[in-house]
Design brief:
Length: about 260
């Protein structure tokens, strides 16, 4: 039965890819990897960390699907800044799985260029070091650009961008009052966590939850949003292609 299901899915994937040929597709896809704990409970696991393990392994598959689909930039939200307040017994293993996942997608032989974004100063020192060192090994690769959001909050990012703009201006000998008078959108856009992430075309949230929870607040101003009922560890290439089909059918007017 499993072999038959896989064969049927492969046929459907080919059909969806054929239907998507020549249609608009997003350059930058951001995804909220939601539903790991619910998946673990639904699968009968006593330890919800199994959901995070399976979800972490899913990331490599997802990046391969995005590469095949011609996506140029992906942002993965793995951990919010609110999640950092979880009990140590829960947060510690989760950070271990995130470290393992990042090492996997940064491994030699993988084509992706990884950037870690978020309030890394809020993470345990060892975790921040592991993530940054793994990502540094990927710089200069010519493949899919991937931002991994860890300890990330959209409101915090905007505050940090304003602070960074003033720090740069004052550090260069400028006057803070002058910058305040001339402050514009570009001062925030140019100081976001990701140097390549000014605009997001398409946001996907798994698990059926229908809210953005502060994800990419600035970048998502004109993004299309797609909510899918599938829990992240069960997410399939079919689900991505269906989301891209939904995107292709929309009339993007950018607020006009």
């Amino acid at each position: 039965m499993r072999a038959l299901r896989s064969a049927l899915e492969a046929v459907y994937v080919r059909r969806l890819n054929h239907k998507l040929e020549g249609l608009p597709r997003p350059r930058h896809v951001a995804i909220m990897l939601d539903g790991n704990r619910r998946w673990a409970r639904g699968a009968g696991h006593q330890d919800v960390r199994e959901g995070y393990r399976v979800g972490g392994a899913k990331v490599t598959e997802f990046l391969r699907w995005c590469t095949d689909a011609g996506i140029k930039h992906v942002t993965l939200w793995m951990l919010s800044d609110d999640n950092l307040h979880r009990p140590p017994a829960e947060l510690g293993p989760l950070l271990d799985i995130i470290e393992e996942t990042v090492r996997r997608i940064c491994a030699a032989g993988e084509p992706w260029e990884i950037e870690i974004i978020g309030a890394l100063d809020l993470l345990p020192g060892n975790t921040a070091r592991v993530l940054k060192e793994a990502a540094s090994d990927t710089h200069g690769r010519g493949g899919l650009k991937v931002d991994v959001a860890v300890g990330y909050g959209g409101r915090r990012e905007i505050v940090d961008a304003v602070r960074a703009a003033f720090d740069k201006h004052i550090g260069a000998g400028g006057d803070a009052r002058e910058l305040a008078a001339d402050f514009d959108l570009e001062h925030i856009s140019d100081n976001l966590y990701s140097p390549a992430g000014h605009d997001t075309d398409f946001i996907i949230r798994t698990s059926g939850e229908q809210r953005l929870s502060g994800f990419l607040l600035w970048q998502s101003a004109y993004a299309e949003v797609h909510f899918v009922d599938v829990l992240w560890p069960a997410f399939r290439e079919i689900d991505l292609l269906r989301a891209l089909r939904s995107y292709a059918a929309r009339d993007r007017r950018y607020g006009r």
